[in-house]
Every structure is written in structure tokens, then in C-alpha cells.
Amino acid sequence: MKSFEISILPGGKTVPVGPDHPLLLLAGPCALESGELGWRIAKEMKEICERLGISYVFKASFDKANRTSLDSFRGPGLRNGLRQLDRIRQEVGVPVVSDVHETSQMDLAADALDIIQIPAFLCRQTDLLVAAAKTGKTVNLKKGQFMSPWDMKHAVDKLRSAGCDRIILTERGASFGYNNLVVDMRSLPVMRSFGCPVIFDATHSVQLPGGMGGSSGGQREFIPTLSRAAMAAGIDGLFMEVHPDPDKALCDGPNSIPLDEVEPLLEQLLVVREAVRNII
Questions:
Q1: Which ranges carry the DAHP synthetase I/KDSA domain (predicted)?
Q2: In the chain, where are the structural domains located?
């Protein structure tokens, strides 16, 4: 599997991604609740990752267009949200990633984001993939809950055919009956065989979609277990939804990890990663 570098920030700094490089971590709140909260999380996460030698990217959605209920919090919206993300990017000095749901959003998003993220529900949307590829940005393509890992090759081919050669694939669980997800660890090496770095979404994988009626539930107590298993299976990065007080989060609180629990977990995971690299 080839490695590549994500170009970030005006200074020309890059973040290498791949099996021979530091672990990549995409982490932040589900939705951007406020610029101040996002700034605080980004700053603390950057400090944690610098201590541990992890490459950090701040993640938050400017618009959660796929919430369960019409009344659910969606975020600050396209223009205001991108302004806040760009401020975090410049002031904290970290790259940023966010979901893009429509082709009409792509040009504005590409000006503010370092990584364009394609949501799991939209991973087969050809026009959206082509538009993302044409931005020239790195694309993080999340595997749909309804998709087999081997079928993701067709989505990867769409991006490559449109000129994108910097593709990250993210595993976030597969539908298992109603209101439940499971993770098939076989999907990680399968998707890695396409020549793309693969990251594991440790928090959406414990989500219970629609499990609370008008919103999704989650089982955050299983985040460490699944993260250790994914690290042992061989991955290039992690995706985590992080919040100082998940029980008060406006989006995906039940499957978010408390900010003060992140560093001890990452320390464990780096030990697992090093052990696996020594074996392989």
C-alpha cells in the first residue's frame, strides 16, 4: 500500500499518511456547536497528539444533513461553519476535515478544508465523488453501513478516474438488524488492499442508529475494545468524536468519547500498534 502526504495550511506543511508513518487521528465534536468549543477541543487535542507523536486533524461537521429528526441540531451551516473551521485551522495550526453533502457546497468547502469527507450514506453518489476529486484535496471516503468492503473499490475507482490519488477509507460499522451496527475486522485489510490508507471510526461504530427514537443512541463503553481490535488488525489512523461533556453534546453524545479519556486510550493504542508493527 502506498503512502502519501496531505498538504495542509498555507505554510506548505504536510502530513504523511500510511503504514510507515505516525498514526493519523481525525478527532473533534460531531457537529460544530460553537467556534469557541471547537477551538478548545482542537487546541487540547493538538497538544495531546504532539506529546504522543500522532498526526492530528480536527474534525467537525458544519452541517449534519442526515440527523434522525427534523428538529435535531445540525450545526452552524455552510458559510458560517466553514468560517469557524478556517479560523480553527489558522489559529490553532491544525488541518481540518468536514462532511460535504452536496456538489454545490464543494468549491466553498475546498477553500476552508484540508480533507473533504464523504459521508457514509453518500459513498456511492457519483457526482459528489467526482466533484470532491476535482478539488484536488485529499478525500476521506466513509464506507456505507450498507456496503461490503470489497464493493468500496468501485467508489475508489470513481475518485481515481476523476483525478484523485489521495484517498483515505474509513470503516464505521455495518448495519446489523435494526438500530444496531457491528464491525467486521476483515473489512480493514480488504479495503487496505485497494492501495489506500484505512482508518477506523471508533465512535460511529458503537452508534445505535435511531436507537433513541428521535435520535441515535450509542455504547461508548465499547470504544476502547473496538479500537484495540482495529489497531491489532492493522490500520493507519483513527476517527473519534470527542466532547468535553458528551452527555450534553448537541449531536452524537452517546457515542462520543469524553475529552479527558482520550490521551490514556491513545497511549494504549500506540502500544498495540507498535507490537503489531514488530510482528508484521
A1: 14-269
A2: 22-276
Which residues make beta-bridge pairs with 55?
24
Phi and psi angles of residue 221, each rounded to the nearest 5 degrees, phi first:
-65, -15
Ramachandran quadrant class, 39 (left: phi over 0; alpha: psi -120 to 50; beta: rest): alpha
Task: Identify which of 71, 83, 102 has the alpha carbon closest to the alpha carbon of residue 38.
Answer: 83
pLDDT at 98 over 60: yes
> What are the grid coordinates assigned to 171, written together?
470503516
Rounded to whole angstroms, the Cα distance separating 43 from 110 reads 22
Could you give the CA distance from residue 101 to residue 80 in angstroms, rounded to a whole number?
A: 16
pLDDT for 103-150, tens place per residue? Answer: 999 999 999 999 999 999 999 999 999 999 999 999 999 999 999 999
| Confidence (pLDDT) at 233 | 95
pLDDT at residue 7, rounded to an integer: 60
Residue 185 identity (one-letter amino acid): M
Work out the percent of the chain whose per-residue pLDDT is above 70: 92
Is 186 exposed, middle or buried (CB count within 10 Å of its CB: 0-12, 13-18, 19+)? exposed
pLDDT digits (tens, 9 = 90+) for 250-270: 987 888 999 999 999 999 999
Tell me how far apart the alpha carbons of residues 160 and 194 are, in angstroms, rounded to a whole number.
11
What's residue 105's pLDDT?
96
Q: Which fold has domain 22-276?
A: TIM Barrel (3.20.20)
Query: Cα-Cα-Cα-Cα dihedral of 200, 248, 87, 204, to 10°?
Result: 10
